[in-house]
Amino acid sequence: MPASPPARKAARASTAAPQREAATRDADKTRLNILEAAEAEFAAKGLAGARVDVVAEEAGANKRMIYYYFGSKEDLYLAVLERVYTDMRVAEAELALEAMAPLAAITCLTEFKFDYPAQHPHLIPLLNSENMLGGEYLRRSLRLREMQISLIARLEAILARGAADGTLRPGIDPLHLYLTISAISYFYFSNNPTLSTAFGRDLATADERATRRRHVVDVVTRYIERL
After folding, report:
1. How far is CA 30 from the centre of its chain?
2. Cα(180)–Cα(17) distance, rounded to whole angstroms?
3. Angle of helix 174-190 relative to helix 206-224, nearest 10 degrees?
4. In this structure, what are the phi and psi dihedrals at residue 225, rounded to the nearest 5 degrees?
5. Any idea what DSSP says for residue 3?
6. d(Cα 161, Cα 155) in Å, to the nearest integer?
7. 77 close to 90: Cβ distance less than 8 angstroms
8. How far apart are CA 77 and CA 67, in angstroms?
């Protein structure tokens, strides 16, 4: 006996749902592959030098798919920047700094900011590239701006706790502290080749990196501690 119309409709629906889920997973995987390939290409060559056809080849996709998902080379570049920043902010949030004593929290953040570029080598070249463009593309992202503001608010609360319990000196500007923490780590990684050449000492070795990490933590903690 043939199935009734409602039964046939239910059967089609039960088949269509897994197909839609599989298609969504495939689309997500393709988009992720494109972003990963684009991150490497933009880090190596900057926005001007990067080629969409290279990204497509490395991602196992085609240029038409890249334009379908991202619209343009410039929009793909912005998507890469947003992904890199978002990943870093998510990793920072997972530090659970609010649960730590103030000095321990700032120490943890400082160590994180030093370790992160070593673990994510595309970060520094991407930031260098965007700085050469005057931050033009980052300015388009309201999402990134909101994440930055949230981070500074968290840091401000930690500094306030430290001032209140007497472990940190009062009056520290959270934005400038964050800039200092970022800068002393960023400079080491961004200028490592030229510094190593200038001083005749390979600053990229594991031992040199460990020495620099300890120095960076000492500089920050001695500045913020109430003596």
Report:
1. 20
2. 51
3. 160
4. -65, 140
5. P
6. 10
7. no
8. 12
Residue spans of alpha helices (H) in 133-205: 142-165, 174-190, 192-199
- Amino acid found at 50: A
Please, are residues 167 and 227 in contact by the beta-carbon 8 Å criterion?
no
Tokens 């930690």, residue located: 158
Rounded to whole angstroms, how far apart are CA atoms 211 and 167? 26
- pLDDT tens digits in sequence order for the chain, 227 residues long: 556 666 655 556 555 555 555 545 677 899 999 999 999 999 999 999 999 999 999 999 989 999 999 999 999 999 999 999 989 988 988 998 999 999 999 999 999 999 999 999 999 999 999 999 999 998 888 777 777 778 899 999 999 999 999 999 999 999 999 999 999 999 999 999 999 999 999 999 999 999 999 999 999 999 999 98
Distance, in Å, from the CA atom of 157 to the CA atom of 153, rounded to the nearest integer, reads 6
**CA nearest 114: which of 191, 6, 213?**
213
